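Good morning,

Attaching, inline, the backbone tokens for the sequence recovery test we're adding to the shared suite. The designed sequence is right after.
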């Protein structure tokens, strides 16, 4: 931060953040933002829901505020730490203390009252950011509120519409995945504590129902998405999921800012999960991790390429097409290790493929963070055939670990991977393989191109080094967020 530039205070509200709670990449981003922005004169306090698994991890939390009636429930505000940065936790047992996952029960069914749970989170965030909450007798206000995805988007709507003893500060809503919108029936509107005029197509109403993300996108002073290409894509019918008209109407208020990765966590030179740390200069040591990964998955050792996939096993991620392509991948001399969970049919398809190809294909259903690190370090290439991908983080981890990304040309995948076409190879800038159109033929062709590149060891090594040199830390992205915040305050 340059001399004379005042520090900004930002309340970042989300439904998850590493290391406390994670169901996807949203948590990585929210957990990394405070550190990324601190270098640019922005002090971030994060607000999270008080899930049981989160509460037990807090060290010496302090109750600093109470609500007697937060959308019909009593609640407390706890102060703690998220790493070295301040953290607030909304402790509301009636809404958040229950068995299951953050958004669903033990059977995987969404909680029927998710509208109330996350509207309460948004209302609390608006109260805190606007200065209506008193902490130790003093008003606790912020310069700006930053809400993430549908679970937090109502914070922007409450800042605009809800009466409270505070002031309406500027708000930013980040769309991490526009496919998830928080849509509910119109009958719940009366319980939201909003004035009647908020029920309008230019407000929280959405095709006759209540839309949480829609409300936030309409009310926010600025909208960000997690890559420039995705910011353009969601203006179109193919990617906008019904919100393309609103996104297009917001015009210059929509910004695409790439996610970064935490280089302290994703660093092959100092990763405690690995069998053998390595660097750009000691790439030869990487082979130890490949052998260890083969053993861990029960795969046969050979000199062919080892592909990995670390993802949700869903249609969006193109995993149905990967299940179809397994036989071709094996026929090309490749092997495949998969880590993830999702649609039962896709899980079964991949597991059946593993039975057809013992020693060549292996599947782990579930998620294991240390194993995901070992797969990035031991795999030769990571397959990411997503039909749409707002940003993606696994390709960034792959670049950092020299595990070459094989990606569909969409969203953040298009923005972060340079295709190993003849021109890029000739000029020495390629970092992976891209392909257009997520179908069996195109994925087969991408796998064949990857195998051919792998069979040219010197060329492969050059591309690996290019990948590891790429800088996708939070430096540039943190600066972009700080500029956006200051422009709103100006």
């Amino acid at each position: 931060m340059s001399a004379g530039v005042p520090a900004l205070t930002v309340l970042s509200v989300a439904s998850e953040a590493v290391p406390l709670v994670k169901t996807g990449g949203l948590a990585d981003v929210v957990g990394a933002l405070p550190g990324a922005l601190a270098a640019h004169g922005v002090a971030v306090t994060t607000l999270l829901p008080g899930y049981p698994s989160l509460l037990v991890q807090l060290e010496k939390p302090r109750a600093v505020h109470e609500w007697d009636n937060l959308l019909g429930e009593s609640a407390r505000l706890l102060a703690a730490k998220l790493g070295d940065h301040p953290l607030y936790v909304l402790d509301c047992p009636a809404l958040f203390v229950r068995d299951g996952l953050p958004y669903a029960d033990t059977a995987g069914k969404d909680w029927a009252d998710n509208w109330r749970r996350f509207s309460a989170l948004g209302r609390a965030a608006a109260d805190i950011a606007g200065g209506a909450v008193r902490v130790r007798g003093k008003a606790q206000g912020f310069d700006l509120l930053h809400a993430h995805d549908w679970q937090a988007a109502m914070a922007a709507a409450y800042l605009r519409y809800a009466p409270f003893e505070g002031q309406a500060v500027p708000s930013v809503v980040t769309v991490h995945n526009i496919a998830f919108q928080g849509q509910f029936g119109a009958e719940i509107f009366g319980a939201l504590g909003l004035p009647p005029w908020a029920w309008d197509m230019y407000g929280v109403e959405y095709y006759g129902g209540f839309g949480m993300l829609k409300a936030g996108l309409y009310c926010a002073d600025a909208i960000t998405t997690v890559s420039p290409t995705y910011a353009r894509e969601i203006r179109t019918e193919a990617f906008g999921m019904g919100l393309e008209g609103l996104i297009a109407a917001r015009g210059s208020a929509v910004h695409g800012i790439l996610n970064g990765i935490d280089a302290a966590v994703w660093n092959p030179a100092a990763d405690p999960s690995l069998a053998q740390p390595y660097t750009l200069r000691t790439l030869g040591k990487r082979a130890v991790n490949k052998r260890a990964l083969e053993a861990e998955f029960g795969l046969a050792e050979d000199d062919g390429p080892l592909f990995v996939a670390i993802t949700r096993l869903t249609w969006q991620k193109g995993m149905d097409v990967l299940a179809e392509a397994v036989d071709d991948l094996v026929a090309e001399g490749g092997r495949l290790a998969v880590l993830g969970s999702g649609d039962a049919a896709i899980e079964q398809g991949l597991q059946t493929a593993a039975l057809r190809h013992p020693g060549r294909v292996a599947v782990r259903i579930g998620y294991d963070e240390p194993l995901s690190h070992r797969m990035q370090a031991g795999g030769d290439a990571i397959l990411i055939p997503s039909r749409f991908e707002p940003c993606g983080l696994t390709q960034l981890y792959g670049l950092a670990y020299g595990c070459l990304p094989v990606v569909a040309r969409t969203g953040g995948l298009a923005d972060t991977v340079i295709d190993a076409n003849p021109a890029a190879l000739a000029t020495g800038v390629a970092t992976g393989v891209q392909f257009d159109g997520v179908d069996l033929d195109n994925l087969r062709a991408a796998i064949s191109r990857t195998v051919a590149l792998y069979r040219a060891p010197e060329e492969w090594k050059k591309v690996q080094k290019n990948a590891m040199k790429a800088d996708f830390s939070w430096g540039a992205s943190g600066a972009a967020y700080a500029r956006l915040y200051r422009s709103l305050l100006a």
